[in-house]
Amino acid sequence: MKELKVFAPATVANLSCGFDVLGCCLDSVGDEMVVRKNDLNEIRITKVTGQELPMEADKNVAGVAVKALLKDLESDQGFDIEITKRIKPGSGIGSSAASSAGAVFAVNKLLGEPYSSNQLIPFAMQGELIASGNEHADNVAPALLGGFSLVRSYCPLEVLSLPVPSELRMVVLHPLIEIKTKDSRSIIKQNISLKSAINQWGNLGALISALYTDDYDLLGRSLEDEIVEPIRSILIPYFQELDELSVANGALGFGISGSGPSVYALCKGDENAEKVKQAIKKFYEKKGIDFDLHLSAINKQGVKIL
Ligand code: ADP
Fold this sequence. Notes:
The protein is of the alpha+beta class. Helix content is 37%, strand content 26%. The chain contains 10 helices and 11 strands. Helix 1 (61-73) links the parallel strand 3 and strand 4 (78-84). Helix 1 packs across helix 3 (117-132). The longest helix has 20 residues, at 194-213. Its EC number is 2.7.1.39. It comes from Christiangramia crocea.
């Protein structure tokens, strides 16, 4: 096999009380990538359509992630990478992670799968490091593994896959304003009170339990983040109103996707998700801010071969 075309999915990280440790994979939003072996012993970004992105392999996260993999494998195989970008960079739904994950997934397949999906995570994290200055895994892990991923530990890296209740749907609103990941990180407090920590780990434990037991009501009650969301939500226009509107229309919960500006409503079933989507659309259309709006199931597979 010389060439592979893949779907590289968008992801929702920093999932509520799972800040920096919990993310999930979307199904209907993502990029397409074509990865092809070349005889030049060189990694080249040969084409990017849809968005302006760096064409130098050392500045494009796809090139950086692939180089990390090849270095570990001590391989000098060259690859050409084409990216059709549908996930806008800086949207908060893992634009950079999709490219890193898609690239290492395809290269691994073309090399006869020397690594498991889990082993690809650290290479994709090298891409995240150049995109945001932080080697976080809660976008690249669900993009590679599908479903929900929990980062139990960063050092050493240990990532767990969690079950996906079948009726879960995500409505994602992306207000087309720019919030830099670095900026939204800089406003977070570095110390928290014991009381906040207790509430947060209570909610995260309950959220994990809800995924295992298909308990949608418990899932809704546990989607609370009292540490990061109150600070970051200030950067997102009409956050409070959107939260109240979504819950009033039956959403299980509402929160910030990644470091924003995207926000998500987690819903049970297509019918409710469509209702929430329409309510958000009607509300935001009057606010004079351009936006994208997505409705997606949870993608249990992660990166897919097309
Ligand atoms: P997101 O959370 O949507 O990935 P970030 O702000 O974390 O957004 O990362 C986007 C940054 O990464 C931008 O500066 C962008 O230029 C850079 N970047 C480099 N290569 C890529 C790529 N292949 N896809 C997306 N962003 C990339």
